[in-house]
Amino acid sequence: MNEQDVLVQRFLDQDLTPDERVQFLEQVDADPRLRREWLNLEMVIAEAGRLPRIGPSTQFTARVLEALDPESKSLLDRLVGWMTAPRTLQWNLGGAMASACVAIVAVAWLLRLVPVRPVEVPFNSSSAQMVSLESTPTTYVRLVLVQPWAQSVSVAGDFNGWSPDRTSMQRSDGGVWTTTIRLKPGRYQYMFVIDGKQWLADPLATEDTGDGFGSQNAILDVGTTL
Amino acid sequence: MPVEPRAGDDEARLIARSQQQDPEAFGQLVGRYAGVIVNLAYRMVGNRADAEDLAQDAFLAAFKALPMFRADSKFSTWLYRIAANKCKDWLRAKHSEPVDLDDHEAVVAQVVETHTPERLLSQQQVAQQLEGALQRLPPLYREAFVLKHVEGLSYEDMQELLGVNVDTLKMRVYKGRVQLSRELSEWNDRQLPRSR
């Protein structure tokens, strides 16, 4: 780099003092070769500053963000990933006991909200279910009748002197009427009494017999072992 | 420094959130600086596809390194430095490959100009020649020239960005200018007989 080159570069870099700039311009005016060299350099700088600026494509930012986390492509994917990501739970005894207490209270509270509704299942053979208690010589028999429109239902038979008022049945959802009676082993005849006036043989009984008045009594056979 | 489009408290908040690896905040920073970084990369490597890839690499590297970023330098300078290093690495790897001159025409055609057709033609021709000549500069001269005269940085900013002292940078810019001037003069001389 000769002296003139240094002068030109310092002028372009604006490193010259005002007096030096005046001297430089006088030299340029007097020297066509120096003038041409200087103007060519000025043109390069000017054209470089005018070069078109290249912008990013419209998808550039999205591509960068996608590359940050290639696994997550959508909100749903991120949600699924978050839900299924394995996690390690840290716990201590105090926290565990507190959580257990909260859970117990919550379950108890939920149970209070659930109404007590015994579900009655119609029988596919007989309406009478019998449960033998080995410690006693008697058997508990459960009678079931489906009468959705009945206002009251009772059962009358050998075991209660054929009284329609002594053994009433309880209604549950769906119009199912039930009662449980305690009987000693033996064979019993019985009928249902609907609304205190309509007598009805058990339609699900597996055995029945005539009552001498043109109707059928259901037979309940209570054995010693069931 | 031209790469500080909307610096301020808002940017400080975005940087802080990005340091916590918040992609949404970092996306806003990408949106602000994508233009300058892609343009720098394009001027360094000479084609748009590689420029975008390098700019993307630069942003990804910045995201990973953000937790270590300290406010002792401007975010834009820090980001610029990452991008410049990416470009230099790329140029080292591609040192022996010739520059695709055809790509320059495609890029220039995408730029919206408001000048008259005559002025556009002339300026496009000069711009094409200058872009071609830029790609033939040695990478260190190209880097210094681009930062100084394309991006408009001061020597002091360049020193902070590149970690090279001002005198060395001035020498690189000088050599870049001279080589570009020579090439454009030769091209201009070749054009004169045709126009006569």
Highest CATH level, the class of the largest domain in chain A: Mainly Beta
User: On the 0-100 scale, what is the average pLDDT of chain A?
Assistant: 79
Secondary-structure element order of chain B, N to C: HHHHHHHHH
Instruction: Give the number of helices of chain B.
Output: 9
| Helix/sheet category of chain B | mainly alpha
How much of the sequence lies in strands of chain A comes to 15-25%
The number of distinct structural domains of chain A comes to 3
Main β-sheet description of chain A: 5 strands, antiparallel
- What name does the CATH topology of chain B carry? Rna Polymerase Sigma Factor, Chain: A
Structural Rg of chain A: 51 Å
Looking at the overall shape, the CATH architecture of the largest domain in chain A is Sandwich
Largest contact between chains = A-B, 30 and 44 residues
* Helix and strand run of chain A: HHHHHHEEEEEEEEE
Number of strands of chain B: 0
User: Which percent bin holds the helix content of chain B?
Assistant: over 70%
Folded structure, characterized:
The complex is a heterodimer of chains A (about 230) and B (about 200). Chain A has 3 domains: about 5-50, no CATH class; about 60-115, no CATH class; about 130-220, Immunoglobulins (Immunoglobulin-like, Sandwich), CATH 2.60.40. Helix content of chain A is about 35%, strand content about 20%. By secondary structure, chain A is an alpha+beta fold. Mean pLDDT of chain A is about 80; it is low at about 115-125. In chain A, strands 3, 6, 7, 8 and 9 form a 5-stranded antiparallel beta sheet that branches. A 4-stranded antiparallel beta sheet of chain A has the order 1-2-5-4, with no helix packed on it. Chain A contains 6 helices and 9 strands; from the N terminus they run ααααααβββββββββ. Chain A is rod-shaped and about 150 Å long. The N and C termini of chain A lie far apart (about 120 Å). With about 200 residues, chain B is mainly α. Chain B has one domain: RNA polymerase sigma factor, region 2, helix turn helix motif (Rna Polymerase Sigma Factor, Chain: A), CATH 1.10.1740.10. Helix content of chain B is about 75%, strand content about 0%. Chain B has 9 helices and no strands. Chain B has helices at about 10-20, 25-45, 50-65, 75-95, 100-110, 115-135, 140-150, 155-160, 165-195. In chain B, helix 1 (about 10-20) packs across helix 2 (about 25-45), helix 6 (about 115-135) crosses helix 9 (about 165-195) and helix 7 crosses helix 9. The longest helix of chain B has 30 residues, at about 165-195. The termini of chain B are far apart. At the A-B interface, helix 1, helix 3 and helix 4 of A face helix 2, helix 3, helix 6, helix 7 and helix 9 of B.
